[in-house]
Amino acid sequence: MLKNKTAVVTGGTRGIGLAIVKKYLENGANVAVAGSRQETVDKALAVLGQYGDRVMGIWPDLCDPEAVAGAFAGIRDRFGSLDILANNAGVSSRTSLYDYTLEEFSKILDINLKAVFVCSQAAARIMKPQGGGVIINTSSMVAEYGQSAGCGYPATKFAVNGLTKSLARELAKDQIRVNAVAPGVTRTDMVAALPAEMVERISAGIPLGRVGEPLDIANAYLFLASDLASYVTGVTLRVDGAAMV
Ligand SMILES: NC(=O)c1ccc[n+]([C@@H]2O[C@H](COP(=O)([O-])OP(=O)(O)OC[C@H]3O[C@@H](n4cnc5c(N)ncnc54)[C@H](O)[C@@H]3O)[C@@H](O)[C@H]2O)c1
After folding, report:
1. Among all residues, which ones are annotated catalytic?
2. Which of 18, 62, 88 gets mutated to test ligand 1 (max ligand atoms within 8 A of its CB)?
3. What is 6-185+209-239's CATH topology?
4. 0.85 cut: is pTM over it?
5. Domain residue ranges of the chain, discontinuous segments joined by +
6. Is the CB of residue 86 less than 8 Å from the CB of residue 177?
7. What is the pLDDT of residues 106-118, one digit of tens each?
8. Closest Cα partner for 59 from 110, 8, 128, 106?
9. Which of 62, 89, 100, 198 has the most Cβ atoms closer than 10 angstroms to its Cβ?
10. Could you give the angle at the alpha carbon of 231 between the alpha carbons of 229 and 232, nearest 5°?
């Protein structure tokens, strides 16, 4: 479904991001895995050995426009194009408002929102002269409901939805589609950090009766990246088993 396309997946070293990387590689794309450190990128590349020179690693500071532009230009130079940006990197928090420091709030804004802006700008500057491309952002079910602690996290995901709708409208004339995927509770390190009883309670309350797997989310990322979604832009696609909390 993605033959002759090149994708970059931020936070592609584990969890949902690594599942997206695998799904894109299985479907014929060249993929750049973007991680925070060379060490974690190398670890991810080690499990992707079967894809040979169709996969590469980058580790720019995602909030540094020059570093990201340079890394994305490197991807284009290596594979000939940059067609798909999956803005997946993200950090979560359940800190109470009473304990939140400005430093922690800024950190979550940086990776969950500012990096999405920086990466989208760098990718669009490459995609426009190419004649188009696809940007997919990672929202969350909490961007519908908020959450009862850690207000910075849902605040960034509401903002990601706004960025998605706005960029979809702005970039449509350049044939760049911009969508978001809003996962529900998904079995990754982010969820492993939650108390087990909380995950059980959440699963029991999900109409489909289970938490999501990274593959469930990666399949939505595949659809939105592919030509099957050629007339889909500006949407946030919920992939959450109809969860409501
Ligand atoms: N797991 C869930 O239940 C869930 C639900 C809704 C949304 N999400 C979203 O899905 C995305 C992936 O989450 P996950 O569950 O796979 O989490 P995870 O913690 O397993 O992975 C997060 C990824 O982001 C990367 N990352 C974090 N900070 C970074 C930085 N400064 N620079 C570069 N990369 C950085 C990590 O290296 C890692 O690869 C996030 O945006 C998250 O908010 C997850």
Report:
1. 153
2. 88
3. Rossmann fold (3.40.50)
4. yes
5. 6-185+209-239
6. no
7. 999 999 999 999 9
8. 8
9. 62
10. 65
